[in-house]
Structures are given as structure tokens and as C-alpha cells.
Amino acid sequence: MLENEDVQRSVAAALINEATEGNNAGSVARAFETIRDTIGEKPVDKLEMKAEMNVEESAARLRSLFESIKKE
Q1: SS3 string of 11-70?
Q2: Residue 60's pLDDT is what?
Q3: N or C: which end of the chain has fewer CB within 10 A?
Q4: pTM of the model
């Protein structure tokens, strides 16, 4: 169905009309989001993590933990 160019044009026109002329705030926002996402402007969720780790301290803690488990 969406392979048909006439259908594509109709859907695009309906979305644009809803985004610009719609009366329901939710449907206007959803139409705008659909248009935005379709043209490749969808925001990307990014998570940035920074961590510092002292390898020697971590290794010592792990050895200590393993030793305590062996004793049990």
C-alpha cells in the first residue's frame, strides 16, 4: 500500500495538514513527531558515562573477596 506514490502523497498531506491545522493538541504533536522522524530528524537518546577505576585497588579487593569466600 505505501509503495504507491499516490498513497504516500496522501499520507504525507494528511500528516502535514494535521500538524499545521489540527485541533487536538495530541494528534498535532504526534503528526509533527511522525513527520520529524520520517525526514530523519528524530532525536537520538544518548547516555554518556564516565568512570574512573583504580585497577590495582579493584584487583586487591577482588582477591580479598575471593579469599573470604574460600574460607566459608
Answers
A1: HHHHHHHHHHHCCCHHHHHHHHHHHHHHCCCCCCCCCCCCCCCCHHHHHHHHHHHHHHHH
A2: 92
A3: C
A4: 0.48
